Amino acid sequence: MRKLKLYIAITLDGYIATKEGNIDWLLNFPNEDGNDYGYAEFLEEIDVTLMGNQTYKHVLQLADPFPYKEKTNYVFTKSANISIAPYVHFVDGDMVRFVKHLKNKPGKDIWLIGGSQINTVLLAADLIDELHIAQFPIVLGAGIPLFGGVQHLRQFELTHLKKNKNGVLELRYKR
Length: 175
Known about the structure:
Blueprint: E1 4-11, E2 15-17, H1 24-27, H2 39-45, E3 46-52, H3 53-62, E4 72-76, E5 88-91, H4 95-103, E6 109-114, H5 116-124, E7 130-136, E8 144-145, E9 157-163, E10 169-174
Parallel strand pairs: 1-6, 1-7, 3-4, 3-6, 4-5
Antiparallel strand pairs: 2-8, 7-10, 9-10
């Protein structure tokens, strides 16, 4: 069975973006060593991406051309007016059922890109197998949380910890 892996950057206070969805804190963070925080290695492990519609819009703003065109990409949306876009398939049905089905198909692992709403739904459904987190030494004070409103305890085991010169921690957890 394929694993669903959340690979994401967060602040010390657990946010993935400002309230407005801005990630300038991440893009402008000093990185003199050009460290990718395990990103290139992680990309080799996956052949599918999952993301929410807002995250998809941010990806389009940040990268031209679309950065994951060699992967199969699914964008979850609540909109009935789904447009056609290159390199992505829009999904407007039951997210949990879709991901369960996807995990049972053959292939490499699946990258849960985010955002907060999809992270929360899939965590609550106990579908996230691993967390790959780059924790930046920044406090936003408010913003979009990594997970919001999770009602049930989910425990993970730390399997990897690396401290980078610039203070960014690379953390890996498994269920």
